[in-house]
Structures are given as C-alpha cells and as structure tokens.
Amino acid sequence: SIKLYALTNNNTLVSANVATTNVLTGSLKLQIFNTLVNEKGNAFAENFTLLDLNKLGRTNGFSDSEALSILKGIKHIKELTLLTNGDFSNGTTGWSTTASASVNATNNELTIVPIALYGGVTQTLPNPTSYKNHILYTKALLKTTSNQVILYINDGVSQSGLSATDFTQYQLVSVKRIIDSNATTCIVKIQDNRTSNWDSIYVKDIVCIDLTALFGAGNEPTQAQCDTWFSQGSNNLIGSYNTELFDITKVSLTANASLNNSVITLNATSGYQNNTLFIPVLPNNKYEFKVNKTGFNGYVDIRGLYNSVISQTITVGLGTSQADGQYTLTFITNNNINNIRIILTSTSSGTFTFSNISLKIRM
User: Could you tell me how far CA 83 lies from the centroid of its own chain?
Assistant: First the structure.
C-alpha cells in the first residue's frame, strides 16, 4: 500500500492508506476521494496533494510531523522560503547587486551580467542572528558556463557554497549549512569568482528553508533528500488534485448548445436535445450533484451504468417544471455501478442554461 496525505487550508495533515492495486487499476483518484471523505469528512476532500512516501528513500518510514513538513514544503514552498521574491515575479525586488554586475529580471528569470570579480546578487535574511545553530537549505536553478559561479550561504563567520556541473542547461544547485553560533549575519548569494571572461548567468526559483524550524533539531533531512522533496514537479508527487469530478469542457454538446465561461446554453428547437457526460464513479458511495438551471422545462437526467448498461435511475429532485435556481441532489450508487451518465436537456423548445455544475463524493 501507499500512504496518502491531504493538506487542508489551515495546514492540518490527514492521512490514509491506499492499496497499491488501485494505482494499477487506474481507480486511484476516485479511491483517494472516497478514502478521505469517508474517513476524514467532507471538509478534508476539497483539495489535496498525494505523496508516495515509499519513493522518498527512507526505509524506516516517516512520522506524521515529518510528512506534514515535506508536504508543506512541496506544496507551499513559496510560503516557507525565507527569501523575498525568490521567483523573481516582482523583478529584482529584495535582491542587492554588487558593484561589479548588472541584473534584470523578466518572465521569472534573473539575468546577472558580471563585469568584474565577485559580480552577483545577495539577499540578507530578516533577523539573521535568529538562525544561530539552525540548519538552512537553499536551492536555485542555475544556468552558467563556469564552475566558478557559486551559490552560497554566508553567516558572517564563514560560508558554504556549491557550483553547477552541467553547463548546457539549467541545473538544480543546492547548499546546506549549519549557521555558526557566533553568526553576525545570514546571507544567500550567487557570486561569480572568475577574474575574466565573464558572461551572463541565469537564475530561477531560488528558495531558502530553515530545516531546523521545519523538522525540529536533530530531525533535519539530508541535502539529497531536500533536493528531492523540495523540487516542485518531482515525480515523487503522484498528483495534486481538486476533487471535482464534473468537467464541463468534456460535455458532448448538441448542435444547438454552446459552452461559454462555464455556462452551457441550449437553444432547443424541440425537446430532448441532450448534452451528455459520462463520469467514472465507485459503487456504494454517496455523491452530491449541484447545478444552476434556467428555463422552466430544462432538466437533468442522471443514470447509473454498469459496463455501459443503465442499471440505476437517479433523477429525484431535478425533473421538469421547476423554477430557475440552484439545485442539489444527493444520491448513493448501488453495488453494480461504475459510471454515471448526466444529461442536461429540456422537454420543449426554448432557451435553457446550466451552470455552477459540480459532482463530488460525500460522506
């Protein structure tokens, strides 16, 4: 089995075990939704990130506090970083330039053009002496033609640094350092130590994380683990999901229907001009369907299917001759359902709209 973790809006961790076979059968996403909802409640199943801890290289497992830290680091790395504007979304704000370089930032990429020895950029962390005896980790995507371009953490006593080794493309470069007990400052910097032949240096996504504050003293991960855990887009994340099952862009529309700004408009010339969507579901589970409809004879028909054959009718509360407005239907799939068919239609000619449509698993 794998252990899945969900992170709520207030950074509360919930976890549950999911059988590995669900990954192989392709029903993992639905199984996760079902597990979270039925074990943890509706509020925990709105958005979550699935993390496969078996891939993170520690054979003795993880405590929940460690898993929470990893998940927060992966999902909310911008919130954890001690640096200002490390993604360069606000130009060069927060970064100081040495006198021996010029810099500019566009499209979340910083370009450093050194003109003398030690050209580069620096940023001093706020309250720098508060990090004494803490382990800090910084990483950046760096593209350079020289191993003399170094990413450093400097605490005023000494510094630790590392250079790129691949000079053909962006490379993840990282540094981990114990901040000295006599530290007078705490600086993250990128510096060119060449004495001549300078050329442009490119930087993306630089972060600095206080591992001691995040994991606790003595529990800090290794630099290699940090490189894996805090690399966005890492394949150790199985996926980040919103648990909405209804995808309005996949509705099969009739010739007289259109989709605009997530609203389906049906200009029906007769009754039963159907707009249809098939959605995989799990048997014996509770679902909540919502729709806002306009048009007196507009209605929604929901049927449960097993291997494309209708085996359950689910239409209560969304029939014809109902006023305009938002409707909610809760239903339970029976034990031989693996899909539902949702039809948005009308019983007469006229103009009808369907919007704010949602389908989610519920307790």
Answer: 21
| Residue 326, CB-side half-sphere exposure with 13 Å CA sphere | 5
In three-state form (DSSP H/G/I as H, E/B as E, the rest C), the secondary structure along 245-289 is CCCHHHCECCCCEEEECCEEEEEECCCCCCEEEEEECCCCCEEEE
Report the Cα–Cα distance between both ends of the chain, in Å, rounded.
23
Is 22:338 a contact under the CB 8 Å cutoff? no
The structure's pTM equals: 0.58
β-bridge mates for residue 362, sequence order: 286
Tens digits of per-residue pLDDT, 260-295?
A: 999 999 999 999 999 999 988 878 888 889 999 999
The amino acid occupying position 96 is S
CB within 8 A of 8, min separation 6: which ones? 14, 43, 44
Phi-psi region of 216 (alpha: psi -120 to 50; beta: other; left: phi over 0): left
